[in-house]
Specification:
The protein has about 290 residues and is mostly helical. The chain has a domain at about 5-145 and about 190-245. It has 6 helices and no strands. The chain has helices spanning about 5-20, 20-60, 65-110, 125-170, 185-240, 260-280.
Length: about 290
């Protein structure tokens, strides 16, 4: 079963979403998808290697040059060994990923959402992913060396053919022919599968780096949550130690007396005067008789 469809992984993502940890849920889902993508790419590389072995068998039947066949055979042997090693490492990553997801889900069911704070423990697969990335880079280096060897062999075969052809022309009394830089078609055909493998291996590296980035984001998200929890606890402790620090400032006491009443009466009179002025009502001054 593919990692993204694994029941435990899906259950963990659901728990994270329910507990408002959408960023962590997103990181877990992407990590699973990237690891799955790496596995698919490696399967494609291994399939291409099998196709190359079949092509080599046909070369032998057609009696192509032995040195070229030996070079390609050695390349395929090395690549197959490296690919099997990477496949085993990917299996270990998937196993650890599912085990960690199952552990967190089980603990969350027993102890509550506090167990979801252990998401940072997924960073344990970082070392394995970094080793996979390094092994894939070594495989790409091996492919590049093989491509260079094929180019060198093709050039040698082309030059040998041109030299033999011109020798025959000289014996026939004809002038030597100048040949262009056209590459030997047989070797170019043999390079195509290797170039396809290089592209697939580069895709594995891209997936590995994307998965490592998600682990980094998950680590940062968990650290941020821990920092926020510490700050909240520090505020609570401060309130317990110094409760007056958060008390609101008391309003001034209500005042009584004739002075206050007269001041209030003056405010009312002024407000009524301003209102009547706006309505063009003449204001009567003095006391009524």
């Amino acid at each position: 079963m593919e990692l993204t469809n694994d029941q435990v992984v899906q259950e963990l993502i659901e728990l994270l979403n329910k507990n408002q940890q959408k960023e962590a849920a997103n990181n877990v889902g992407k990590m699973a998808a990237y690891i799955q993508g790496m596995e698919r790419k490696m399967d494609a590389v291994i399939e291409e290697l099998a196709g190359m072995r079949k092509q080599l068998a046909e070369m032998e039947a057609k009696r192509q040059r032995k040195s070229l066949k030996e070079t390609l055979t050695k390349t395929i042997d090395n690549l197959e060994q490296q690919c099997q090693k990477i496949k085993q490492q990917l299996f270990e990553v998937k196993t650890e990923f599912k085990e960690k997801a199952a552990e967190i889900v089980a603990e969350a069911k027993q102890k509550g959402k506090a167990a979801l704070n252990k998401m940072s423990e997924f960073t344990g697969i970082r070392d394995k992913l970094e080793k996979i990335r390094q092994n894939v880079k070594e495989s790409i280096t091996e492919v590049d060396r093989s491509l260079d060897r094929i180019d060198a062999l093709g050039k040698g075969m082309r030059e040998a053919f041109q030299k033999a052809s011109n020798t025959l022309r000289v014996f026939a009394g004809k002038p030597e022919k100048k040949y262009g830089e056209k590459k030997f078609s047989k070797t170019e055909l043999l390079k195509k599968p290797l170039m396809a493998k290089r592209k697939l291996l580069s895709g594995v590296i891209n997936y590995a780096e994307a998965a490592l980035n998600q682990i980094q984001r998950l680590t940062q998200d968990q650290q941020q949550q821990r920092d926020q929890a510490v700050q909240k606890m520090e505020r609570v402790e401060a309130e317990v130690i110094n409760p007056s620090a958060n008390m609101t400032v008391a309003e001034p006491a209500f005042q009584y007396g004739s002075e206050v009443f007269e001041a209030y009466e003056q405010q009312i009179t002024q407000a009524m005067t301003e209102k009547m002025a706006k309505q063009n009502v003449p204001v009567m001054s003095g006391k009524s008789r």
